[in-house]
């Protein structure tokens, strides 16, 4: 079986090594605002400090695994507008999709 050309193999290798993930990131104020409007507030940690510690650990674990983790600051009004535009509720799934779209727009 014929192998792809070297340049094509190198590009594929580079793409597989350049994994990027977006991390939902808040300030103390935006964390409280998004949680207050969420349909799943039980999915949030008990306090901003506990959330921040968890988020920092997650970012560190991604980095150790060779994954580039980019903090995507959540702006509550933008998230709300995105939810309305996309017929979504403010829940964990939609927040993840929102961050994914923000990340794609910023690196794409």
Features:
108 residues, mainly alpha, two-stranded parallel ribbon, globular
What does this structure look like?
The chain has 5 helices and 2 strands; from the N terminus they run αβααβαα. The chain has helices at residues 6-17, 28-37, 48-64, 76-85, 92-107, and strands at residues 20-25, 68-73. A two-stranded parallel ribbon has the order 1-2.
Write the layout of secondary structure elements.
Blueprint: H1 6-17, E1 20-25, H2 28-37, H3 48-64, E2 68-73, H4 76-85, H5 92-107
Parallel strand pairs: 1-2
- Runs in which pLDDT lies below 50 for 5 or more consecutive residues are none
Record field, number of beta strands: 2
Number of helices: 5
Side by side, the strands of the main sheet go: 1-2
Summarize the structure.
This protein is mainly alpha-helical and 108 residues long.
């Amino acid at each position: 079986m014929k192998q792809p050309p070297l340049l094509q193999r190198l590009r594929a290798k580079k793409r597989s090594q350049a994994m990027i993930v977006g991390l939902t990131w808040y300030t103390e104020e935006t964390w409280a605002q998004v949680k207050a409007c969420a349909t799943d507030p039980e999915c949030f940690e008990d306090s901003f400090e506990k959330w921040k510690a968890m988020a920092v650990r997650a970012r560190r674990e991604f980095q150790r695994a060779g994954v580039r983790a980019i903090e995507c600051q959540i702006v509550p009004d933008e998230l709300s507008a995105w939810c309305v535009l996309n017929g979504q509720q403010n829940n964990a799934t939609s927040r993840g999709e929102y961050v994914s779209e923000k990340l794609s727009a910023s690196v794409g």
